[in-house]
Amino acid sequence: RAKRDGGGVARRFDPVMFAKAEQRRLAEQDLMRGLEAGEFEVHYQPIVDLTQGGITVGVEALVRWRHPEKGLVPPALFLELAEQLGQVPRLGGWVLEEACRQAMDWQIRFPGFEMNVNLSASQLGNPKLIDEVREVLRRTGLPPHDLVLELTESVALTDLVESARVLSALKELGVRIALDDFGTGFSSLSHLSTLPVDVVKIDRSFVQAMPETGGASVAEAVLHIARTFNLSPVAEGVEDAGQAERLRELACARAQGYHFARPMPALGVTELLAKQSPVVIDIDVES
Ligand code: C2E
Ligand code: MG
Ligand code: MG
Ligand code: MG
């Protein structure tokens, strides 16, 4: 490989470059093996309603890799590589089906229990996505309104016209769309009127920057924006009681974060729900 550059220019063997390439090759192999072996799990983080005493009204599905040697690996350590290997549509399709099936299980006790699932750019760009979502809803029987598909601004804005088309088609199925990590991307505001979005998830950086008492905050401004555009806000990354209280004062009904619960295996949510008195959660009337 030393003469790869052509023109007869011989390159010296670079041990660092070689080690990096080798490491990457092994990581790719390991990931493909893990996918083949079905080593992935979906964990679920509760989303609570602050206006109803903090009951759990839904969850966000978050993928993890149960690695035989490394233990539980978070998505930050494998999603990008999976994306580069073109495996995210397949993995994401599996997450979607698994999550919807699980949501149906929880809906027996809590009708209207909501399931949030993250979509990546490659999934949004996949022409089969709409059929796939329709099929998963049909197979699992989950009411479309109780499925919320989350995408980040950077995903939605890669191709605005195409995104608007795909999101509209998804909305025709009855599912809802959330803008994830809202406020961290570029020119968020101008796109709220272009994209058919129902929910904004206020990024945890804004939630954590809220002042203890008084004072304006970006979180508050984002809440105003949400109201202006008739979008339901969900605060992400709530880590303490002060933040939860402040959000309640700002009339942000929904929140998610370590203060309430960490992401957990399905069984943990089942146990949590068993302690909660069964109620009909979904009381908002569809417009
Ligand atoms: P996200 O969709 O914004 O998910 C929220 C992330 O914040 C999760 O990280 C969650 O564990 C973490 N988090 C929740 N509460 C708190 C808190 O109070 N404090 C802090 N510091 N963090 C909190 P996780 O599970 O590592 O996921 C990271 C990202 O990976 C997700 O961000 C999402 O963009 C992506 N992701 C996860 N699962 C999937 C999936 O199935 N498909 C796709 N396409 N992306 C996924
Ligand atoms: Mg998300
Ligand atoms: Mg987020
Ligand atoms: Mg986030």
UniProtKB/TrEMBL annotation:
The keyword Aminoacyl-tRNA synthetase does not apply. Coiled coil: none annotated. It comes from the Bacteria. Residues 24-277 form the EAL domain. Keywords: Membrane, Transmembrane, Transmembrane helix. This is Diguanylate cyclase (GGDEF) domain-containing protein. It comes from Actinoplanes derwentensis. The lineage of its organism: Bacteria, Bacillati, Actinomycetota, Actinomycetes, Micromonosporales. The chain holds residues 275 to 561 of 561 of the full protein.
